[in-house]
Amino acid sequence: MPPSLMPANSALPAKCIRTHLTANKQALPVTTSLPSSRRRTLKRSHAVARSDARGANADDLKFYTHTLCPYAQRVTLTLLEKGVDFETVEVDLSNKPRWYYEINSLGLVPALSWNGHVTVESLDICKYIDTEFAGPALVPEDSEGQRRVEEIFSSCDHVASRGLRFLAGRDRYWGIGEPSLDTPTAQADFQASLVQLSEQIDLHGGPYLAGSSVTLADLVLLPFMERFDMCIREFRDDFDLRREGGCEDITPIGNWLELMEKRPAAKEAAADPAKLLAAFKRYRSLDFFDYVSMTKSTL
Ligand SMILES: N[C@@H](CCC(=O)N[C@@H](CS)C(=O)NCC(=O)O)C(=O)O
Q1: Where exactly are the transmembrane stretches of this chain (predicted)?
Q2: CA 289 to ligand 1 centroid distance, Å
Q3: Average of pLDDT values for 194-214?
Q4: pTM over 0.85
Q5: Mutate which of 293, 294, 297, 299 for ligand 1 pocket (most atoms within 8 A of beta carbon)
Q6: Which residue segment(s) compose the domain that 94 sits in?
Q7: Residues with beta carbon inside 6 Å of ligand 1?
């Protein structure tokens, strides 16, 4: 990470050191900053892994995360919605520990380790959790439902990338330049992507993205929409995300956001808005640390 991009006065919480045992029982230092109240110990009835029947349990499930990362928040939401017991390992991305590259060679959070098997990439992790653990199904079991959710994943990607471009702009990767809040094309593109998503909600009957019950599609989009909403409220008085920027009435996407925010999992998984805003003002980035890997791979 270039020193100029290093968050010297990082707003991250103070860290403490724990011990982490790898599969080969080698002790590795792990930094964690989660208050003990957030290390979840759910009732065993909520923490049943599908493969419990084969003798495994969810107790050794470790979730590598960063408190501000929207991709990691997708996974937190999925774990909470499923009611899976897990241990959180907060990775200090501003001073990434070397041992973390053994977990994910790209050095990115989130990662999930369970039964000696590590999964990376947020969407893959969410799908893995849904498949491996008991609890409410977050992808429909019928092929038509699965196709619908896959299609919505693409729309979510579209909205997320348009939102990031509108709010943070291309230059965010370099930590330089002004944010793109005023770029008319980026704004129009973002608005169009919101309208499209609202139409999709209508098409499937709402109120969730894929119909009447919550699915992974809702969970992968929510962290980004919360961040966009927060940023727009802070910096724009002429744009309301819940009205797609222009409509008089609250739109399906606005209703969706209100509905999602009321879910207990969403409340528990939400990042601290003050820290998110502080980081946005500092880095002009809403996927806060991604520009670091972009820098590494682009140079
Ligand atoms: N495509 C990845 C993106 C993950 C990602 O970009 N994570 C950021 C934090 S929000 C990260 O770990 N950055 C560290 C780095 O770039 O070195 C996913 O969906 O899991």
Answers
A1: none
A2: 6
A3: 95
A4: no
A5: 293
A6: 3-132
A7: 66, 69, 71, 93, 107-110, 121-122, 287-290, 292-293
